[in-house]
């Protein structure tokens, strides 16, 4: 697999993943939802040594062991680490990849906390751009 690259919204922090991720999961937990403001978050898990980060993310202690890394300038969430549960691993938010289509999701996780309407979200009407207003 070619290396994966990504960055925060403003470009102050960028990264390169130099190995194939262990997995790519869509997380539905309350913690991810609360931190991102989105109904779910995509995460690619990989050994921390395979991720090269340019710039200095801020780190937020989101739980006893969980650490969320984000850009202090634009607020983009980038990484998650938890040395107690996932030693030497890092999760990368896949929505920040330069080419998010390069890494298809493989599973939904923490579905016990999923919002009920997410099970049928794929059935909603679709619009390539904003729908016309009456």
List the helices and strands and how they pair.
Blueprint: E1 4-7, E2 14-17, E3 23-27, H1 30-36, E4 41-47, E5 51-54, E6 58-61, E7 67-70, E8 77-81, E9 89-93, E10 107-109
Parallel strand pairs: 3-10
Antiparallel strand pairs: 1-2, 2-5, 3-4, 4-9, 6-7, 7-8, 8-9
Describe it:
The chain is mostly beta strands and 134 residues long. The protein is built from one helix and ten strands. It has one helix at residues 30-36; strands spanning 4-7, 14-17, 23-27, 41-47, 51-54, 58-61, 67-70, 77-81, 89-93, 107-109. The protein has a seven-stranded mixed sheet with strand order 6-7-8-9-4-3-10. Strands 1-2-5 form a three-stranded antiparallel sheet, with no helix packed on it. Strand 7 and strand 8 (77-81) form a beta hairpin. The radius of gyration is 16 Å and the shape is globular. The mean pLDDT is 95.
What percent of residues are in strands? 25-35%
User: Which bin fits the share of residues in helices?
Assistant: under 10%
Which structural class do you get from the secondary structure elements? mainly beta
Sheet with most strands: strand arrangement: 6-7-8-9-4-3-10
Low-confidence stretches: none
Helix count, per DSSP? 1
Q: How are helices and strands ordered from N to C? A: EEEHEEEEEEE
Distance between the termini: 47 Å
| Mean residue pLDDT | 95
Shape: globular
Main sheet specs: 7 strands, mixed
What is the rounded Rg?
16 Å
- The total count of strands amounts to 10
